[in-house]
Amino acid sequence: MVSGPNSSCDDASSPQCATCGRHAELFELPGKKEKYCLECSADVATSILLATKIDQASRIGEDTTGLVAEFVQLGRRLLSRAQLQP
Question: How many domains does the chain have?
Answer without folding.
Answer: 1
